[in-house]
Amino acid sequence: MSQHQLEKYVTDAHAQGMSHEEIVASLTKAGWRLHDFVDIVLERTQPESADALISVRNVTKKYNEKVTALNGVSFSVKKGGVTALLGPNGAGKTTLVRMMSTLLSPTSGRITVAGYDVVRDAKKLRSEIGLTGQYAAVDDMLTGRENLEMVGRLYHIGKTKARARASELLKQFDLEDAADRTLKTYSGGMRRRLDLAASLIMHPKVLFLDEPTTGLDPRSRFALWNVIRDLVKEGTTVLLTTQYLEEADQLADAIFVIDHGRIIAQGTADELKTQVGGDVLEIHMTEHAKAGHAAEVIRSFGSASPSADENHGIVTMPVAGGASVLVEVVRKLDAEKLAITNIVLRRPSLDDVFMKLTGHTAG
Question: What is the b/e burial string over 125-149, where b = at least 16 CB atoms within 10 angstroms of the residue's CB?
């Protein structure tokens, strides 16, 4: 029996006139320990943060005994702006979004969005949120206008209102010229913009974007970023999942880093970057396979251990000595006959943060 099944059982038992003592005795007989349902009661009665539009508290999702997608995740999102869930494939980002948007139920813990419990109040919540998944959920055989009108009709807003709302969104997303073309003639960027437009039919308070720019070329990505910024200016609260560190850096007011089903860090982009400390030395090796050897050669110059990417021949390492370290590093590499094509000293990126936190890249 899950947490939510337990809550339903207690509610039904009360409706049948069972006393508290009888309910506890029945649950104990079924194998529930007293502290288990006491913990659930405490979790349910814990006050929500006054300014939290999204509240995720101690959420776990298990698909079976061997697969745990999320393990005790807790965070909150304030109204307005963009919050990013940053992590690699398989970190648990999509599972979390699917739970926040009522498509999955948590195994334990509680999620509320816009004041609604995602399990108990799922039907009411769906009219308050929008969701754009990793793949455009639009019909290739319909035109852009027909797709948007169909979504409006599915929300039961009526034919006239659906047509009017479709026209508004086609204009907002710069799709008017292509409105009456079938989607099979659309580019990838146009399809993603239409998919995003469809999620806004009901003027949602919260918009969930699950890796919305995956597969897009740089120009289309930048265009979609501008659309997201415009939505925030109009009052939409956006929760964005991404494995693109640049995307989180460009868009997010707050970032939660997730890896292996757990939140491992949080803060603004600048706050996270300070965790690396100092500048970052980046060396591009002429022979890529020698990146690991080069990292060991220069290790003593770093304020933390270097990392070596032998596939691309790049060595990165936090340093505290500023520009003065460049000369010493070049001399050391030259003495070891390790040729380089470029060496730079730069400020830390979110990629550096992720590497330090997890020991691997976000890709």
Answer: bbebbbbbbbebebeeeebbbbbbb
Residue 153: count other Cβ atoms within 10 Å of its Cβ. 15
Q: Are 89 and 243 in contact (CB under 8 A)?
A: yes
Q: Where are the domains of the chain?
A: 1-45, 110-272, 277-347
Give the HSE-up count for residue 54: Cα atoms under 13 Å, Cβ half-sphere.
28
Q: How far apart are CA 167 and CA 143, in angstroms?
A: 13
Is CATH 3.40.50.300 the classification given to domain 110-272?
Answer: yes
The pTM score is 0.72
Give me the CATH topology for the region 277-347: Alpha-Beta Plaits (3.30.70)
User: Fold match between 110-272 and 277-347?
Assistant: no
- Which amino acid, 257? V
Could you report the per-residue pLDDT of 241-287, keeping only the tens digit for each?
988 888 988 999 999 999 889 998 899 988 888 777 678 899 999 99
